[in-house]
Design goal:
With 70 residues, the protein is of the alpha+beta class. 24% of the residues lie in helices and 33% in strands. It is built from two helices and five strands. A five-stranded antiparallel β-sheet has the order 1-2-3-4-5, with no helix packed on it. β2 and β3 form a beta hairpin. The chain starts with a strand and ends with a strand.
Length: 70
């Protein structure tokens, strides 16, 4: 189970990351939960320093990594 961290975003409720499997988990405010695979840790860390978490996700993660809705 991936530990989730609450994040301030208009679209995203929480994110979590598993270092061993390089799996990023994103929970959206609408309750949907997605896992993105083979995401390097520096990309996960970038979410926390981004001015807009949603924009960072759209530009750096969506379309770049395999994903699955949980």
């Amino acid at each position: 189970m991936i530990e989730m961290n609450t994040i301030e975003s208009s679209n995203i409720a929480a994110v979590g990351y598993d270092v061993e499997t390089e799996t990023l988990q994103v929970e959206f405010n609408n309750g949907s939960l997605y896992q993105y695979f083979d995401v390097p840790e520096h990309i996960y860390q970038g979410l926390f320093s981004a001015d807009s978490v949603g924009t960072f996700l759209a530009q750096n993660i969506k379309g770049s990594y395999r994903y699955s809705r949980v």
